[in-house]
Structure formats: C-alpha cells, structure tokens
Design brief:
The chain has 155 residues and is α+β, with helices and mostly antiparallel strands. Helix content is 17%, strand content 52%. The protein folds into 2 domains: 30 residues; 113 residues, Calycin beta-barrel core domain (Lipocalin). It has an 8-stranded antiparallel beta barrel.
Length: 155
C-alpha cells in the first residue's frame, strides 16, 4: 500500500471510531424514562396485516387518533381505524417502557384477543415518535407528533 493510502485508511478508521464513540456517549446522556415521555400525541398508523390474526383483521390497516402517555408507564388510545375495510372508532389502554436512549416499546390491545406490540424511537426532543409493530404477520408503522408541543411537558 502507498503511504497516502495507509494514511487515508487510518484517518477514516479513526474518524469512524470517534463518531461511534460520540454516538454512544450521546445516547447514554439522554437519560430518558417513562417520566420523560408524557403527554398526548396525534398519530397515524398504516400498513397491512398479512397473517396470524383473526380473519377479519387480515388486510390493509390504517388508524388515526391520539395516544396519551401518562409518564408512569400507562398509555391510552382514542382512534378511528380501517381494518380490512371495516371502519370504526375505538379506545384502548396499554403500557409502555422507555429506555435511557429514548427508544422503547408500547402495547395496544385491539380486541378480539389481538394485542399489537410496537418498538419506537422518539425524535424532535421528545415531540414525536416513530414506531413499527413487532408482531408476526403485521407490517404496520406509526408516526406520532405531540398534539400541543408548546406546553411544557416536564411539569
């Protein structure tokens, strides 16, 4: 290898290691918890249920509503949904867990013995989240934005 190629390779490796180290340090410094995720978020979910669900659930799925995190690990949902063409309102209550790096999970009981399990990441300084359903046979994503972002959520 030429000296300039070796120097370039070592520089790239050093910058990569430094960047990865900074990303880890930043994730650890966030200090998120259930208490830091509190408030009402307007959300939209879209996708498909392809298997492992009651037959009436299999097909395209869309949902819009509000999701309220209480800061203590409980979450409530008020929504209108279209599941395989069946349209209607609903409410549900579930639980959530937030990791120190501001990622987490929540579950949403949907009725008929079906509970959706989501993994999420917060964004925009806890004013939004992006989630994906982690259940077999379900391909659904959810995007939520804080409904009233001007309110001080830390109170």
């Amino acid at each position: 290898m030429k000296p300039s190629t070796i120097a370039r390779t070592l520089t790239i490796a050093a910058v990569s290691a430094l960047t990865l180290g900074m990303a880890s340090a930043n994730a650890e410094d966030k200090g998120c918890s259930e208490a830091t995720l509190k408030g009402t978020f307007a959300y939209t979910s879209t996708g498909f249920i392809v298997a492992d669900a009651p037959p009436s659930f299999i097909g395209p799925s869309a949902e819009v509503g509000t999701q309220t995190f209480d800061g203590k690990g409980n979450v409530t949902f008020t929504f209108n949904a279209s599941t395989n063409g069946s349209i209607g309102p609903g409410t549900s209550t579930g639980t959530y867990k937030v990791n120190e790096d501001c990622t987490g999970t929540f579950m949403e009981p949907l009725g008929g013995g079906f509970t959706a399990h989501y993994s999420f990441v917060t964004d925009d300084n806890l004013n939004g989240f992006q989630a994906i359903c982690q259940d077999t046979g379900v391909v659904v994503t959810r995007f939520g934005r804080r409904q009233f972002p001007g309110n001080d959520w830390r109170r």
